[in-house]
Q: What sequence folds into this?
């Protein structure tokens, strides 16, 4: 179970730069303008053989002066409730600001380990500025330069010391785990209540090692799985429900602990930016997906035409991954609730599919012969053989070729589509690798 580390701080202290440095990526947009960061601020950091998740809170600030500071405070509160450790970033060149003092006050009240990080220490002269930050009452500041990477190794060593060692779940019995995720008011609580019903046939409720993700065992009507319930369903929080950052933070927990994600969309609102954020989290974590369009009972036009239009709108937004089931349901009237569970179970089985090597070659090699990879610099690429890698988290296929470096992404997608056409892999991501034969 990965730990969760949140990066907090006022705008423009370099949160996105540090995020990119820790996750070895360039996915966060970096700019000198405050409030640039908007989405996709979630990644994995690996250091000394340990892995943890990193969230950059900058992505969910509403960029408007009068509510700017209030939003930052809210986010810091969410971060302290959801994360295992907080990196509080300050700017060594600018010194302590009123907003830094406010944030420090919230952090001191929390029971979490907090690491004070003084960023932008680009040369020796900047280090003299660190002493001012002792007045925040959060111990010794770590001086780093996120832009050059200086000091980040020592910081990561310290973070690993302070992070609680993540234990294995108590539910490692091979039972599928389904998480219901979506933005607030999409009907997550209603659908879980509809699944469980008033006659709650719950065998066990195991609190996970995560900050209260709760596993609810469900074994009625021939089903047997755990529902991964986010803390958000269990308790109303001090933070206003509509805060986008809040639902993303909550979803991270549920998604990481599940096999199949049931993504709830609101039929009356269509697909929104926040749904896309959660969809991207599902993809990054290689989880299987079932999309449920809830509140279908409130939609007036229920014709086949309307359903098709809605479906293609969803798939267009989520492309290139379009091979997932979409169910139009209503948690309130329990319409198609049973189908949601059946589909989630089938998608889980697709995730575990095993295809024999001889069958794979028999089907795929003629397809490759008909449509070989395009030649590059006059070199012809020959794919000789394909096999499925055993015991992987998601179906993983390796194609052996003479010049694997010349097989580009579009052709890999072509191979993936052909695999999906010939075998039932609906709802589950798959890996396609090309290796030297």
A:
């Amino acid at each position: 179970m990965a730990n969760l580390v949140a990066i907090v701080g006022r705008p423009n202290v370099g949160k996105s730069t540090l995020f990119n440095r820790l996750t070895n990526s360039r996915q966060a947009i970096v700019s000198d303008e405050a409030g640039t960061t908007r989405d996709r601020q979630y990644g994995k950091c690996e250091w000394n053989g340990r892995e943890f998740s990193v969230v950059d809170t900058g992505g969910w600030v509403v960029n408007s002066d009068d509510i700017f500071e209030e939003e930052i405070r809210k986010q810091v509160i969410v971060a302290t409730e959801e994360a295992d450790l907080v990196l509080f970033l300050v700017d060594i060149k600018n010194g302590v600001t009123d907003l830094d003092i406010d944030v420090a006050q919230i952090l001191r009240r929390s029971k979490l380990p907090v690491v004070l990080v003084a960023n932008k220490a680009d040369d020796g002269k900047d280090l003299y500025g660190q002493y001012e930050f002792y007045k925040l009452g959060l111990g010794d500041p770590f001086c780093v330069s996120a832009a050059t990477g200086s000091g980040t190794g020592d910081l990561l060593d310290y973070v690993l010391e302070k992070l609680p060692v993540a234990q294995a779940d108590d539910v490692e019995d091979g039972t599928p785990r389904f998480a219901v995720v979506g933005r607030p008011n999409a009907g997550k609580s209603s659908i879980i209540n509809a699944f469980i019903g008033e006659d709650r046939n719950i065998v066990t409720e195991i609190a996970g090692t995560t900050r209260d993700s709760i596993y609810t065992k469900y074994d009625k009507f021939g089903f047997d799985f755990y529902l991964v319930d986010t803390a958000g369903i269990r308790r109303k929080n001090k933070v206003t429900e509509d805060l986008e950052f809040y639902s993303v933070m909550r979803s991270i927990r549920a998604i990481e602990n599940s096999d199949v994600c049931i993504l709830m969309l609101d039929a009356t609102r269509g697909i929104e930016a926040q749904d896309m954020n959660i969809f991207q989290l599902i993809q990054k974590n290689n989880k299987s997906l079932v999309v449920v369009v809830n509140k279908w009972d409130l939609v007036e036009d229920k014709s086949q035409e309307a359903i098709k239009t809605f479906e293609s709108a969803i798939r267009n937004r989520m492309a290139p991954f379009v091979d997932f089931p979409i169910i139009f349901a209503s948690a309130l009237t329990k319409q198609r609730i049973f189908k949601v569970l059946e589909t989630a179970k089938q998608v889980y089985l697709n995730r575990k599919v095993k295809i024999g090597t001889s069958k794979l070659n028999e089907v795929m090699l003629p397809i490759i012969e008909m449509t070989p990879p395009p030649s590059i610099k006059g070199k012809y690429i020959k794919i000789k053989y394909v096999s499925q890698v055993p015991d992987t988290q998601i179906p993983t296929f390796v194609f052996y070729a003479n010049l694997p470096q010349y097989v580009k992404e579009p052709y890999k997608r072509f191979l993936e589509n052909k695999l999906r056409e010939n075998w039932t892999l609906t709802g589950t991501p798959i890996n396609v690798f090309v290796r030297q034969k």
Summary: The first strand starts at residue 3 and ends at 8. The radius of gyration is 24 Å.
